[in-house]
Hints:
Distance between the termini of chain B: 74 Å
Shape of chain A: globular
CATH topology of the largest domain in chain A: Rossmann fold
CATH superfamily of the largest domain in chain A: Thiamin diphosphate (ThDP)-binding fold, Pyr/PP domains
CATH architecture of the largest domain in chain B: 3-Layer(aba) Sandwich
Largest sheet of chain A: 7 strands, mixed
Shape of chain B: globular
Low-confidence stretches of chain A: none
Helix content of chain B: 25-40%
Order of helices and strands of chain A: EHEHEHEHHEHEHEEEEHEEHEHEHH
CATH topology of the largest domain in chain B: Rossmann fold
Structural class of chain A: alpha/beta
Number of strands of chain B: 7
Number of domains of chain A: 2
Radius of gyration of chain B: 22 Å
CATH architecture of the largest domain in chain A: 3-Layer(aba) Sandwich
Helix content of chain A: 25-40%
Largest sheet of chain B: 5 strands, parallel
Oligomer: heterodimer
Amino acid sequence: MAQMNMIESIRSAMDVTMGRDPHVVVLGEDVGYFGGVFRCTDGLQRKYGEDRVIDAPIAEGGIIGTAIGMGVNGLRPVAEIQFADYIYPGYDQVVSELARLRYRTCGDFFSPVTIRTPCGGGIRGGQTHSQSPEALFTHVSGITTIMPSNPYDAKGLLISAIQSDDPIVFFEPKRIYNGPFDGDPEKPAVSWSSHAKGEVPEGYYTVPIGSAEIVKPGDDLTIITYGTLVHVAQASAELTGVDAEIVDVRTLAPLDIPTLADSVRKTGRCLVAHEATRYSGFGAELVATIQEECFYHLEAPIERIGGWDTPYPHAFEWNYFPGQKRIAAGIRKVMEAE
Amino acid sequence: MATKSRLHIPRASARPGEKPDFSYLELSPAGSVDRPPVDARTRDIENLSSDMVRVLDENHEAVGPWKPDFDARQLQVSLRWMMLVRAFDRRMWQIQRQGRISFYMESAGEEAVSIAQAVALRPGDMCFPSYRNQGLYLYRGTKLVDMMCQCLSNTRDMCKGRQMPIMYHNRNANVFSISGNLCTQYPHAVGWAMASALKGEDHIAASWVGDGSTAEADFHYALTFAAIYQAPVILNVVNNQWAISTFQGTAGGERRPFAARGLGLGIPGIRVDGNDFLAVYAVTLWAADRARRGGGPTLIELVTYRGGAHSTSDDPSKYRPKDEWAEFPLGDPVERLKLHLISEGAWSEEKHEELEKELRDEVLAAWKEAQRFGTMTEGPFLDPSLMFDDVYAEMPAHLEEQRRQMLAIED
């Protein structure tokens, strides 16, 4: 085992899969010579060559479109979109082509593209470097949508993603690249070295796609969340003294409904939280699913916390971000309901 | 110059009731354009993107440096393929008009594009077609009956009822799946070609879009990537003058030919008489050789005319003169190859008519066979629960559940 932050573990996932399979190629803006603006591909081009770690022009639609063609021709492309906020020029290629190629050709053609993209706020990135557009992808049939919350899961899930024959959008919450973030921007940054999930095997292993994880068991209520908010939710629960069970969704689509529903059936109370804007956010799907699965076990209405329904504001980041105070208030509300 | 800016709205040269006017179309005499070596520098062959490569002259003779090596027998076979495409289209159009399929798109007037280019490519080369390239599927061995069964969404449909008519694919023949979203296949072709080069193979890719689709972002992504990585790919723009009701000027064709779109990126462009089978074959072979020898991409503009409607859903008499095709200076590709063969003494009107009848019968026989696998009104029908397959490589639990729900309701 080694200590890794999320950048190192993601890099290690690509390194391990590239070493095992010559068909794995990486492409994206600044991923080659420079090693990526977040350093996730640092050293890979020196190790595997310029034709397997390809510096691409600034054309997200072209990166995803050509990656699809490479995948059809037997490669396993890992396309990096530098910020999730930049993915929209490639959205048509994801929705109309990548997601449906297997379906429309009855399996005769498919393209095993993994799209990696840093998402989420907390880094003073304003509107164009802070978005969480996961719901735009969970809504698309045929796409697998993943968002890990720690280095161990990130590596294991990314290896699974690259090996999968399905197209995958792999969101990397950039605020927790270097350490877990509990939602309090005033506190000094914490590194992954003191976190159990910062222990990462150096070699090959996988974390299965489509499985949620109970990261902290508890009896009083279930908090269903993913990405950065997994850590914020734990701190928020501690603030309230409530014995919360924290469920990390990890794979948003296809969703691990049994793990989520079993937890809520046990606790009888549920709060759903994500960074993305609330309206039509993925939380709506989670709430609806829990309502369908657990209605007769619920002792309180399900609470839903998200980013406010505004664009991500630069100077008011910490008023916008669903931090400990908002989540704690939500927890109290669910606990106080009779 | 005027003293203030003005908004220029491109206008078609003729609309219904007006006299067809192709004076905007610049032509070169057959045989007049030089054939450069395949390793020529783009800057030295810029003329190819504005001149027009033509081989068949007004006497139907093949002339000039682009005249390819073809014997009469090979040309007869090629003519037969073009005639088969036309016979197939005519029948399917009729069938749609009878309400027996929901939709159709014919390629009348553009048959030389698919057939001549398919003949010039090798079987291992990958084709990324647009929706008017049925000739590619047929030439590469897709059976008429399979094309028809796709249009019928019946039990033999290659798409299992998931795609509207004409959205074919053929994995074994290396012809990709057609998308209704335009130009999306262009970057796929470039990525495929990049992978081919990366793997050290000498297969190339080719893709086709219409003049209208060149305005899509994907067109520019594809050209940019192809140029940067010198992908072994042939990017074809089939300039058939019309995108539904919008003439090619509204796609940006008024000032410079589409073939010149790649020059700024260093991609050679060739403008070719798209209704001249021999010229289309010759330029495609040139571009394929260039790509196979590491010369990178070529953009080919095939100047042709969409002889029919855009699809069965529009009536072209509402937006263009009815007699426009008859006035098109590059004529009809089938007719021109026929007259060439006749001028060579290798064909006759009688043989042509005989072959037309034979092909009509072949298509009709295929149609009869196709219906045995089901029609829109009579079985056998596809099992609707197949709709849940192939969304993912393995069916996830929520789709299993939805399939169960659908079957429970249908029972």
